[in-house]
């Protein structure tokens, strides 16, 4: 998509990102937070101060349409070249393949930072996300049954993995 751009998220992007994230907390099982999170808690999650793991704002022209990130997979040193991916698009902008370009962007960022493996950890109910990562060449590598509880349901988590080219 020609006028799609991604930039590291800044302080003045926080409110728009949090509004979007809280929408998905309240209305979906795409994320396993239960109640809305506060600006302060969100700020701590977004600005972790690590060169490798950043959040990016996604814009289409001048419109903010979502955000995405690479984050630490696990804290132990052996996992330093593995990252977890996440992306949240505004509802009006889903289903338009923006996810493809976003994943491609994050993979390039990952490669530039020496990351070899990306993991997408997805709610078993999130068909759109599963389709996106399958389409982008990610392989199912783990299936955790009923590990998440939300809206009175026990929900699976399915991990998809891609080993990036050297
Ligand atoms: C999941 C998400 C990132 C996928 O990105 P996207 O740009 O919408 O992906 P695509 O346009 O490539 O669509 C992928 C598939 O999901 C379907 N899809 C996307 N959004 C949908 C929606 N709102 N309702 C139903 N199907 C949807 C598409 O039709 C497509 O299916 P197809 O391959 O059979 O045609 C995006 O939909 C999103 O932000 N969703 C809400 C937040 C979320 O779930 N984030 C992921 C957390 S792991």
Q: What is the overall number of helices?
A: 4
**How many angstroms separate the termini?**
26 Å
The CATH architecture can be named as 3-Layer(aba) Sandwich
Strand order of the largest sheet: 1-2-3-4-5-7-6
User: Spans of 5+ residues with little confidence (pLDDT < 50)?
Assistant: none
Main sheet makeup: 7 strands, mixed
Order of helices and strands: EHHEEEHEHEE
- How many β-strand runs? 7
* Oligomerization state: single chain
Find the CATH superfamily.
Answer: Gcn5-related N-acetyltransferase (GNAT)
* Overall number of domains: 1
Cofactors, ions and other ligands in the entry = coenzyme A
Shape call: globular
* Mean pLDDT over the residues: 97
Rg, alpha carbons: 15 Å
Proportion of helical residues: 25-40%
> Which CATH top level class fits?
Alpha Beta
| Backbone structural class | alpha+beta
